[in-house]
Amino acid sequence: AQRVTQPEKLLSVFKGAPVELKCNYSYSGSPELFWYVQYSRQRLQLLLRHISRESIKGFTADLNKGETSFHLKKPFAQEEDSAMYYCALSGDGTSYGKLTFGQGTILTVHP
Amino acid sequence: NAGVMQNPRHLVRRRGQEARLRCSPMKGHSHVYWYRQLPEEGLKFMVYLQKENIIDESGMPKERFSAEFPKEGPSILRIQQVVRGDSAAYFCASSRRSQTWRNEKLFFGSGTQLSVL
Q1: What DSSP state is assigned to residue B9?
Q2: Nearest-angstrom CA–CA distance, A93 and A95
Q3: B31, A90: Cβ pair inside 8 Å?
Q4: C-alpha distances in angstroms, B41 versus A79, A103, A110, B12, B33?
Q5: Per-residue confidence at A101, pLDDT binned at 50, 70, 90?
Q6: How far apart are CA A59 and CA A6, in angstroms?
Q7: Cα separation of A89 and A27, whole Å?
Q8: Distant-in-sequence, close-in-space partners of A66: CB < 8 Å, separation ≥ 6
Q9: Which residues fall within 8 angstroms of residue A95, CB to CB, at 6 or more apart?
Q10: Is the pLDDT of residue A39 over 70?
Q11: What is the pLDDT of residue B98?
């Protein structure tokens, strides 16, 4: 069975401070990992995926297979980063949109 | 492109009634996924449909729940004889799936909040 754990339900930081949202997963094969974000009154949208190795809005995430983690990081948080963040896993290379989501972390960036 | 459209946004039903949730995928998308989010939990996969076909319903409860995606019209998630435990946010997502999975992207709707009294 596959599982995604986001240990922090709430995370608060001040503007300009570094931020790290934790995500750990459990899966026996080769996972594909994603971060989704939901801003206030907006739809859930893809932030980044590990295979792209991209940086979106200053966020990066590295897949650490040894620690089974995919933590989301940003060196200098901005107020507009305040949102709900979900880590998600696709455990099967052919399983299209069948994702396993974590419970989410609400990030609040204070001025 | 208006994106993935779900309606209604809010649906209130009494126990024992039927709930019908609709999802219109993005233009050009023929793959639809339904997710359910119970209070204080993450989204959980329910079912994956292509036009006129159910591809994967491994996340659907065995009873009372059904889904369809007809050749014409929106995808429908139907819950018969609703119970209080069905109260949740139901999200629909669509994809084009014209490429390999690694290039695919899911687009989510705004969700339907079902409340069972």
Answers
A1: S
A2: 6
A3: no
A4: 25, 5, 25, 21, 18
A5: very high
A6: 17
A7: 9
A8: none
A9: B56, B101
A10: yes
A11: 46
User: Is A97 in Cβ contact with B31 (below 8 Å)?
Assistant: yes
C-alpha pair distances (Å), A49 with each of A32, A35, A67, B19, B76: 8, 6, 18, 34, 29
- Structure tokens given for A7: 């240990």
DSSP A68-111: TB--EEESS--GGG-EEEEEEEE-STT-TT--EE---EEEEEE-
CA pair distance B90, B23, nearest whole angstrom: 10
* Cβ–Cβ < 8 Å for B89, B35: no
Which member of B97, B108, B109 has the closest CB to residue A96? B97
Residue A58, phi-psi category: left (phi > 0), alpha (psi -120 to 50), beta (remainder)? left
Cα–Cα distance measured from residue B81 to residue B54, given in angstroms and rounded to the nearest whole number:
22
Asked if A98 lies within 8 A of B45 by C-beta distance, the reply is yes
Do residues B48 and B55 lie in contact, with contact meaning Cβ atoms separated by under 8 Å? Answer: yes
Q: What average pLDDT does this structure show over B74-79?
A: 98
Angle at A90 between CA A85 and CA A92, to 5 degrees: 180
A106 Cβ contact partners less than 8 Å away, ≥ 6 residues apart: A9, A10, A11, A83, A84, A85
Stretch B101-106: mean pLDDT? 69
Could you report the per-residue pLDDT of A50-100, keeping only the tens digit for each?
Answer: 877 777 889 999 889 899 999 999 999 999 999 999 999 987 655 567 889
